[in-house]
Structure formats: structure tokens, C-alpha cells
Design brief:
This protein has ten helices and 20 strands. It has about 400 residues and is of the alpha/beta class. It folds into three domains: about 80 residues, Roll (Archaeosine Trna-guanine Transglycosylase, Chain: A, domain 4), CATH 2.30.130.10; about 100 residues, Transcription Regulator spoIIAA (2-Layer Sandwich); about 210 residues, Rossmann fold. A seven-stranded mixed β-sheet has the order 16-15-14-17-18-20-19, with helices on both faces. Strands 2-6-5-4-1-3 form a six-stranded mixed β-sheet. The chain has a five-stranded mixed β-sheet with strand order 7-8-9-10-11. The relative contact order is 0.10.
Length: about 400
Amino acid sequence: MPLGPDCLLQRPLDISSEREPPRFEVRSPTGHPFVFRKRLGHYERTAQPGDLVRLETSSGETHGYGLFNSRAEMTVRQLTWGEQVPDPDWWERQLARAVMFRREFLGLDAVTDAYRVVHAEGDGLSGLIVDRLADVLVVEAYSLGMYQRAEAILDILTPLCETTHGLLRPAPQTLEHEGFTADPIGSEKLPEKVTVREFGTRFRVDFSGGHKTGFYCDQRENRRRFAGFCSNARVLDLCCYTGGFAVQSKVLGQARNVIGVELDEQATELARQNAKLNKAANVQFVQADAFTYARDMLRNERQFDAIVVDPPKLIRTSEEMGEARGKYFDLNRLAFQLAAPGALILTCSCSGRMSSDEFTRLVMGAANNVGRSVRLFDRSGAAGDHPVAANCLESDYLKALWLRVE
């Protein structure tokens, strides 16, 4: 059963209005932001889901502060270490640092208005994702504590980002992982759709549905680079979502013709709109299962000069690992068979539970299985607005392999 509605009420960032943070003993303290249940010793049972708590060593020294949820196996998400209390000044500094990194250091405003503003552990804010999509900040809360503070966080971020609207969504599987579920909450007069720009290309984002926060900002640099290989090419984009790679391969890359394949009906329609929005001719979007469509193309002896394999997240739990390996293997196996001699294949995995080495072995095994000689000439990941913190390397989730089929 989900936590009650009282647990979904918004909280201020000012802890002075609340009681003294409950004390929690943490065994074998580390610098990692995830404190799992098995590492907790004695703690005050009066602590409520979402509370800010003080973590202490067995000797009583302050280890830091974090957000608590009794329903989560990741029971405390640590925010600070030592005596630093995450008071309103701390939140403002942390959020301002995240915004400055994107706007000033990376200079993203010059090339796009669709980028990640806060990347959870990468910005020292475990459980919090914020994307800027045109004039809207979309918050995706992975933890109950961050969900409860989302409106206060948006009050800080909105002027820093010079945006107008906000949208709060719980992340996928918060009921299983955090014990709560909630409907999206939007600011007054939140638009149903916006149009974002990326290297001059425009994309529509529909807030009524969509995966994650509505647009995959993490593939931005990979989309531009892939387009650079597509001049006069026959392009196939498997699992194309709203057509990011497909449209950019035509607009930026001047591909000869492009086919995008997506199972989701709403995403497929949005992809078609994105092609029309950019007057991209010879771009076709097909609503179909990627495996079935690829097999049909194989029977029809079709070949392509540039192929993207970018399925959605296939591994959410360890129990799904075996089945997911088979899906990755089969989809890449089909892609290699559809590749013309000299073709480029960009194959991706956003499943954080699968390591880069394992994904590489799986993909190369698929090539060997169908007798294709390939060269792995580069690896890449998420764009720079998705930083990885030194104390949480597992947040480096996106793996992209660049291969040439001989």
C-alpha cells in the first residue's frame, strides 16, 4: 500500500520550522550518498518518511545529514558530510552551482534550451532530477524527501534559469522503491506542449505523456555526432522515441532517407510532427516493434548505411538482467545483419545495472554471431549536463558504442 496523502505534502527547506533532526546510527560510514537499511543501527523511531535526519557514527560523531524514508531499501539519501546542515543557504548554493555549471561553464544556452539542470548524485542532490525544456522546469523525484521539497526547490531554480513554469512528476517505480505514488503537478497555465531547440533543430515536447521528463537531453551530443556520418546515407533509427536521432540525421546530416521505428503510438506521432516542424523530407516513422520490423527488413533484403540502436531502459531490477541481455543481443544481432558494408552503427544502453564492459562484450558477441567484422572506434555516454560524481560512479548509466561494419 502506498504511503498516505499526508506524506505527499510539500515541506519548506528551512529546518528551523521543524523539530531537531532525528539521530541515526550508521555502521561503517562511507562517502557514498546511498545509506541502505542494513547499514543503519539504532535510530529514533519517531522519524517520519521524508524527514531530514542526522547520521552519527557509533561513537556519536556527526557523519552528515540526509533524507529518510522507512519504506525504501535505500533508507537515507545523504546530502552533506560532517557538521554541514542542509539549511536554506546550503540548498541555494547547491542549486546555484548546478545552474552555473550548465549556463556558464558548459554554455548550453547558446546551443539549446533543453538540458538537465540537476542530475541527482552528480550535483550532490540524490533523488532529484530537473530538466529545462524551453520555459518549463520539469522535476522528476526519485525519493520521497525530494518530492516533498520540490516546490521549494522550484522557487529557487525558476529565477536562476529564467523560466516561468514548473512540473513535478514522481519517477517511475516510486511505489515499489519509495512507497509512494502521485499524479503530476503543474504550475498555473502550464502549457501542454512546448517546442525546444537543439543545434538549430526544433522538437516538440508533450507533457501529457512521455518517458522520463519528456525529452532525452542525454543524447544531445551523440545525436549531433551521429548526424555527421549521415551525408547521403540510408538511416535506420530503431526505438526512435520522438525522432531525435532520425530528425537530426536529416536536418544536420543531410541523410538520403531515414526510417524511425517506435512502438509507442504517441511518441511516433510526435516524431512525425518533429519531422514536419523542420521540413525534413524523406523521413518516415513507423509504429512497430523494433524486433519485428528489423526482421521484416531482413527478409526484404534491405540494408542501411547508418543505424541507431537505442532501446529504452531494459533492466530495472536484478531479476530482469537475464531477459534484458537476450534482448540487447538479439536487437544488435539484427542491426548488424541490416548494415551495409562500411556502415556505422551507434548502439546504446541506458541500463545502469549493465557495465560498459559487459555491454561491449555482448554487442561484439552479436556481431561475431552473424559473421560481421566490426571495428569499435569510440565509446561515449551522456552529455556534459549529466555529470558523474566521484562518490557515486554507478550514476554513469548511458553507454554508447560507435562501430564500423567492415
